[in-house]
Amino acid sequence: MEILGLLLVPIITAGICVFITKHSISKYVSIAGSFITLIYNLILNCAIYSNQTLEGFHGFFYLDSLSILSTQIVTLVGFAAALYSAGYMEAELREGEFPEKRLRWYYFLFHMFIFTMLLVCVTNNLGIMWVAIEATTLSTTFLVGFYNKKSHQEAAWKYIIICTVGITLALFGVILTFHSAKGALGEIGYALNWSNLLKVADGFEPHLMKLAFIFILVGYGTKAGLAPMHTWLPDAHSQAPSPISALFSGVLLNCSMYGIIRYHILTSKCVGPAYSGTLLMVFGLISVVVSIPFIIIQKDYKRLLAFSSIEHIGIIALGFGFGGMYGVYGAELHAFNHAIVKSLLFFCAGNLFLKYKTRDMGNIMGAMKTIPVTSVMLVIGVFAITGIPPFNIFTSEFMVLADGFSSGNLLSIVFSAILLVSIILIFIGFIYNMFKMIFGVPAVTAKQGEANKFTVAAMSFLLFFILVVSLYIPPLLSKILRNIYDIVRNV
Amino acid sequence: MAHQIVINSKTIDILAILMLMSTIMLVGMSRLKNCIWAYAFRSFILAWVSGLIAYFSGIHHIYITTGISLVLKVIIIPGFLFYIINKVKIKNEVESFISYTLSLLISCGIILIAYYSTQSILKFENVFMRHCLPVSLAITLVGFFVMITRKKAITQILGLLAMEDGLFFAALSTSYGMPLIVELGIFFDILVGVIIMGIYVYRIKETFDTIDTDFLRELRE
After folding, report:
1. What confidence category does residue B1 fall into, taking pLDDT thresholds of 50, 70 and 90?
2. What is the pTM for the complete model shown?
3. CA of B94, closest CA in chain A: separation in Å?
4. Domain spans of chain A?
């Protein structure tokens, strides 16, 4: 029952928002809705902390540490994005980019998007998880194409076609999983419930389960942005409004990764962790390596951030692939860190776009003088995302690397070495591209100052979490991360 | 009883071959309207198969999915696609990156691959579905092939629908379909997905004055 509440709040918020045409009211409804979701999730977090798992509706909902971390990321970034939307959309509205009445659809789809992502994380039924992941695509297509211009329509079309094909392949994986479990399960009723499947996973038909995992990895991997299925990602991220890009990058990729991990656990129990682990490692490394040249030669700052997301989802996959204590702990910590840092960066990118009306990094000079607050945040964000020591991403990347090097498996060591070199190259590309834009003498005399106070509030909110996790990992988070290791290792 | 199962599985085999043929028609036909008719025909056969399976397996919830797929896939979705192509006034030709002859040849290759790759799995299957799994895999892969080689946005939607049909058939023949709530969710997703894609076909036509997706090339590195 408690879990149902978490899903109802975003639906109700969406339902209210669709009837409010005045942006001055709907923005507060949207912020309030996402704030209640955030608080509600914190309460659930405490329940998980003491109880380990929660079930609801005859096992239809299932919440353990793995899912609570994902919902935590959804609600945290969701609240920040709602706060940021209020400021960003206000500014866009004043520029006359779209009529005010279209905004209610924006808020409606925004909260439906949050709802579908929460559903992915809390459902126990693997079929419903598939339905929910497909629903994330459907609810966001209009958000990608929100401005309705040529390039936005192209991005939206690519997004829905590539993702739907990918997800359709994943459906084949779901069917094969169901089929391979048939012998072990017996009765058919709740046969697709993950927690039930896990109990009998060692009795699955191994050939089918191996085949199923490949389909799942390719299918959900498309949505997670793993290379070489990532081609929709830079287009959709760069064309969507900035708050939506932040949600895509920080949360959506993570939710699809969550789906892959659920199957990774099942497959590991069925055929041993080496099979799916190696596949995750290979796709993870490809993603990291593919992103390097695009980050270095990039001209568009939002595409730069999008390719960086591909890199980081690759690192998360590598961490799970290595599979040791530090690998899994580091990978999930990395998912959390990446979500908050990348959202902050997309918010900065949004503010830059509002100020300069261009996404071309060559046309922006001396942002530090023109929009100082955003630029300081941007510098912190760039340092954090590239893994500079005091910041949080350094910790998680270090853990993943340490696990790879200490695993004693030759493949893992080679992969970690390549990852280390890639991280350095990406650091150079990032600093070179971003700092050209931030420092220097302003070429055009744009008006000084920030867009408005909502955007600054959203960025400060995320910055607070980045600094906290940089200094130390709160015990609540640490306990959940350790539980996740137990779940993945199936102890 | 055994006799009945043999007849039953023969009927299903014939229907499976009909479905496969209507998918090949999607590859070989040049008129868009005929392609949509082929889709409606395949969906009808699929509903027939699912009704048969419901009858012989005695699982009641398959009747519900049969009914829904009859209404949704035979009437609503083809109707919507006809509405869209009338609205954007598309001429009949289906343009492809590959010639029709070569496409047909490749489809034959795909069917061979589908049979070959499912050999090892089929060893422990029941008599019911000796042809069903390879055929459903073939339909899915041919749909995928159509999606990546055709230029028109509508044909891409039809390819996607062929993929979904193939998977629906696979689920039905291997495990008597998914649990009901999952099937309902999948139907909902298909319907909403097709409607959204249809809206985008319309919008792309409005702005680009074509639904040839080859013209969507602004976003490149």
Report:
1. very low
2. 0.93
3. 18
4. 2-489
